[in-house]
Amino acid sequence: MTQLTTATIDERVSAEAPSRSVWADAWRRLRKNKLAMVCLVIVSAYVVVALLVALRLLAVNWDQTVGNAYEPPSWSNPFGTDIFGRSVWRKTLYGAKISLTVATLASVISVLIGLPLGAIAGFFGKWVDEIIVWLYSTLQSIPYILLILAFAFVLRDKILFKGTTYEVSLSGMTAVYLAIGLTSWVGLCRLIRGEVIKHKQHDYVIAARSFGAGNFYIIFRHILPNVFHLVIIDFSLRFVSFIHAEAILSFLGLGAKDVPSWGVMIDDARLELGRGVWWQMAAATAAILFISLALNIFGDALRDAIDPKLKRAV
Predict the structure, then answer these.
(1) More confident residue, 126 or 165
(2) HSE of 229 in the Cβ direction (CA atoms, 13 Å)?
(3) Are the C-beta atoms of residues 282 and 4 closer than 8 Å to each other?
(4) By C-alpha distance, which of 173, 303, 314, 174 is closest to 238?
(5) pTM of the predicted model as reported, rounded to 2 decimal places
(6) What domains lie within the chain, and their CATH numbers?
(7) What DSSP character marks residue 72?
(8) How far is CA 270 from CA 98, 172, 248, in A?
(9) What is 118-173 written as a DSSP string?
(10) Each residue's pLDDT tens digit, 242-285
(11) Closest Cα partner for 234 from 143, 106, 99?
(12) Do 122 and 114 meet the contact criterion of CB atoms below 8 Å apart?
């Protein structure tokens, strides 16, 4: 009888085991987490509502009068009405479009800044690294909320390329997502910088360099695909903070104008609580609560499913 060594067994197991990509393996493990899947359904519902409202496939006439002022919740108006007799339910649905749009655009801007800066700093090191580290250390030394408020105040009502064909007005939500995106890339930059410092010493980078590959080709073709899972995890976890930041800016009057957002609804409801009108505050708060809780739980589960250090046989 042939004696089976540990090495032989490992080779047979490897040969018989079906090959799966990193993403397929992560999705397989993520599906086993029932709570994470429930949270994914909740987040998907928010996204679908926001898309339907944005594409005008869902008629949300939030400024239409549907009853008397301050009607309490009922079957016809689940979240009651506001001071003008408008449906709070419709305003909440429209607020999902505002908040998710701002959070998505701010996240994209944050990734477009933090990802390349972190990769360049980690790969080249020396004076390039020192400049980028000095830049994000300076931004990080300023309290986050104050930094966002300062950017939002400076950008508000500004006009870029004035007098040209490409004139852009930075009013309302444009100033909000620019302010959030331009100030929130620091964490991702530090994360990617540390990962690139580790990866640039790996054999596949040395092999690519020996074949004559250039520095930027190695960064964007070889290293970044191996650390991009961290970008997705960071995106899912920071999305919640961007929703909160939009609500804060809108609450302070630096965000949405003439359209309902969750922050504006909370600001409007602040004075209504003294009159016993609680439903507008409850609607906006519940909308923020559910998506924040769902995104946090799903983000943690996604990190556990994707992180290679946590990978195990299933």
Answers:
(1) 126
(2) 16
(3) no
(4) 303
(5) 0.82
(6) 33-310 (1.10.3720.10)
(7) P
(8) 20, 21, 13
(9) HHHHHHH-HHHHHHHHHHHHHHHTS-HHHHHHHHHHHHTTEEETTTSTT-EEE-TH
(10) 999 888 888 887 777 778 889 889 988 888 888 888 999 999 99
(11) 106
(12) no
